[in-house]
Structures are given as structure tokens and as C-alpha cells.
Amino acid sequence: MSKLVHQATEQLKQRLIDAANAAMAAGDLPECAIPDFAIEVPADHTHGDYATNLAMVSAKSFHQAPRKIAEAITDHLDLSGTYLNRFAIAGPGFINFFLDQRFYIDVMQDIQKLGKDYGRSDYGKGEKVMVEFVSANPTGPMHMGNARGGALGDCLSAVLDAAGYNVWREFYVNDAGNQIEKFANSLNARYLQIYQGEDAVPFPEDGYQGEDIKERAAEFATIYGEEFLHTNEDVRKRALVGYALPKNIEKMQSDLNKYRITYDKWFLESELHQNGEVAETIQILKGRGMTYEKEGALWYKATAYGAEKDDVLVRQNGNPTYFAADIAYHRNKFQKRGFSRCIDIWGADHHGHVARMKGAMNAVGLDGDKLDVILMQLVRLVQDGEVVRMSKRTGKAIQLGDLLEEVPVDSARFFFTMREANTQMEFDLDLAVKEDAQNPVYYVQYARARICSIFRALAQDGIHLRPCTDEELALLTAPAEIELMRHLAAYTDQIILSAKDYNPSVLTRYVIELATLFHKFYDACRVKGDDPHLTAARMALCDATSTVICNVLTMFKISTPEKM
Length: 564
Fold this sequence. Notes:
The chain is an alpha/beta fold and 564 residues long. It has 22 helices and 15 strands. The model has no long low-confidence stretch (mean pLDDT 94).
């Protein structure tokens, strides 16, 4: 909660308690303990800025009708020295309160003083949090789900940072195990087919069919020619993977850099095998009685922690499974590196894996409740009202790289954070490239550019932004001005709500509403007027709005143009 909002609510809470106690002392209410009550912000601000249910929840304690209790309390209520200046009893006994102009003056001064830091708080108390996101399989290109997960993960990380958490961004690279074996077999077949023909070399049934596999094999052949044609197959496959895997990872990093996403670490699964952490984790599970042998394989008793079935940890051939490595990786996060909370963003198809992984953390002696998984629904690309599956440029399934060639990064990042992760979304390619108010990110950016335009026009008349006195800021009393300042005051709380719910869309909705309220203010209140003091105050309000718009967009790595 922002400092000023917290101060206003705490002042109100204490004055209500004092008033109830005074009413009991005067005999207007019977003596009893005051029950817990809520102070909330009404949806309709014409009813007040705050409302309390104190009289409603006290009815049983005081054995009186709520409205009579509300009247007794308000008869003894003193709001002097607080951010509130009046109240009204509504309905059966709700008490509504209205903020004093002093509150809005202090909000404006707070924004001016803090600037880029306005909205930041210490809510998270520096808690060490990891957000692992995208973590796409390096055996192929990134797709639309990765595009959505990238924006959600990066923006959530930024939100948590602004809310006072110590945040670490990580990409987990599955560069070991079964999928790399399939990758090697696929590359091997495509390489041999170049020289021996497709009919002569069967392609693995479970191989990766993508064109990218053919391209990597062709690149390898261009460099090495027939050098590996007659070598031992294992040697050839190692060489192919040794060439292709780093290329794929490099492409991922390049695409994500274009998407303005950088990580604190790209963590390689192979490290866990090489440094013995996978074997160590398996031994811990054995030591805790969480394994058994069956048909030559080592199994983990996943059902002991609520999973539907047990899982293989080590196959009959002695190789650990991907799940074994995944347990070791999450143990590494918590135990080896000391993150107190880990957040994973996964596709909705991983739904069944959530309980398994949380249970596995409990099984190795950690707290599975400290692992939070955000399940992300599918994205449908739409153009001209039709679902789009193929890139016009390549004729293939649309990849992250293709999207960023079609759509501005600003639009992509904003659009993908406009919906909660657990909802399916349509990404409208036509809307994303529009340069008008129908495009939400353009609409928000335009509000900020409009403020810059206002300042440029005023500067030509010799009028410049300057600090305002309290008396000047107190002139901002028009409904559109109050509504705008009230929304600016809520910014810190919206960041905290976004962090608590792991939901960046709270802030995209907030900034769209901020732009709307600014445009309403601009239409209702002439910035340059006859009164120079009111002009100065309205310029200050424009500047405060610009500051908060920039703070939201900058947090989400979206540009803030001064001209559009």
C-alpha cells in the first residue's frame, strides 16, 4: 500500500475505533469489544473514497440495528487532522468517507519528488525470488506460447522488483536426456540423407520433423562435407549436436534479446548431470524411503504426495529421466542457491506436472508450497478475422522471430500482458500494427506524447513547468482532476496487487484507464487558462500523469515516445 493511502486508511481506522469507544463511554452504545471491520474503496466514487462496514459487523455485539450504530459512531467521529473531511451514512448502515484536498496535494508532491521511483515499495522485504520462464526446448524454434510466456515472465519479474522483491530471471535449457537423443537421431538422419538420399535413410519415427533440423544438418554438411559420413555413429551424432545445439540456443538468445528479454542465467540441465546433483537427488529420495525398484527401473513414490501415479526416476538402461533432472533442478533453486520462492511459468499442457513437482519438493525435504506455477493458456493469432497458423513470409508455423518481424515489440509485450495467464487469448495482428487509438499500447503512448505536445506549445508562449505551491495544487478541484489524481494515488497499490496475484495485466489495465482519465481531463479542463496559478497546477497534473505512464511502460520495457 502506498504511504499516503496507508496513512489515510490507518487514520480512518483509528478515528473509527476512537469514535466507537467514545460512544460506549457516553452510553450511546453498550460496552463490548469492537469486532474486526473492513475499510474498502467503493466501486462508485460518488459514494465516497472509502467505506466501512463497522456498523454492519457490530450489530450482534451491540444488539442494535446497523444504522443506529452508524449514527452513534458518527456522532462521536472527529476527522480533524486526517486526510478525510466528511462522511455520510448510506443504506442500512455503511459509512462513506471523502478525501480532503490535502491528500491530493500530497499525492502530487509525492510523484514530483519520487519521479521514476514513484510506485516502488518495500512490500516484498527483499525476499529472494526466482522467475523461470520460456525455457523452450532447444531442439527447435520458439513458438507463440513462448512469446506469451516471455512477456508474462519478464513483466512479472519487473512487477515483483518494483514491489520490493529481490528477483532473478532464469531460462532452463534442456540440453540433456531423451529429447537431445531424439535431436541427435533426427540430425543424423538428415545429414546422411544429404549424401545417400531420403529413401536410403529412414527417418526416426519419433524424430523432429521440422525444417530447422534439415537446415542445421545442411549447414553442418556445408562446413564438414563428408568428413563424418563414415565415422562411428555416436561420434557423428555428438558432432552434429555439438554444432546444432549452440546454434539453436544462440538463436533463442537473439530472438529474446529482440523481445527485450535478458536473463540473469541460462541454466544448463547438463550441469546437473555433470556435477552429480541428479545422482545426489536420487540418493536423497532413496534415503527418505521414496523409491522402489520395478522391472529393472527405479521408481519414485509420487502417489505418496498426491500424484495420480508413480514416476520412473532411472530407466532400465541406467539413464535418469527428465523428471529426475527436474527434481534436481528445483532442489538446486531452493537448497543450493537459497531462493525462498520459485515461480515457474508453464504451458497449460503441464497441468498434471504441477502436483508432481510440488510433491517432489516435499519428498526431498523441502516445502512444495514455496513453488508457485503459473499455467498459461494458448494464444490464437487472428488476422482479417481469421485464425492464422502459417507465416506469409516462410509458409511455416509462426515462430517468435516471425512475430517480431510482423509486429512492433511494444505491441507484442503490451498485448501479451493484457490478459491473465490462465485465460485463452486472441492476438489480433491487424490491431497490433495499427497507429491509432484502437491499439491499446498506441492509445497509452499517445496520452504521454500529447502531454509532451502540450508542454511544447506552452513553452512557445513562455510558459514552463515549475514546482507549484500547496495553494496552487489546491485549485485542482474539478471532477476530472480529482478522478485523475485519485487514480494516480492508486498506482503503488496496483503494483502490489499485481505482484501478489502474479498478474501483470493489473498494470496494463491500470495504465489504459490512466490514459482514458487523462483524455477526459484534457477535454474537460483547459490547461492554459486565464489564471496562471491554475495553469501551473494543471501542468503539474499533466506532468504527474506523464511520470506514471512512463513508469508503467518503462517497467514493461515499452517505449515512451514524446512525439507520435
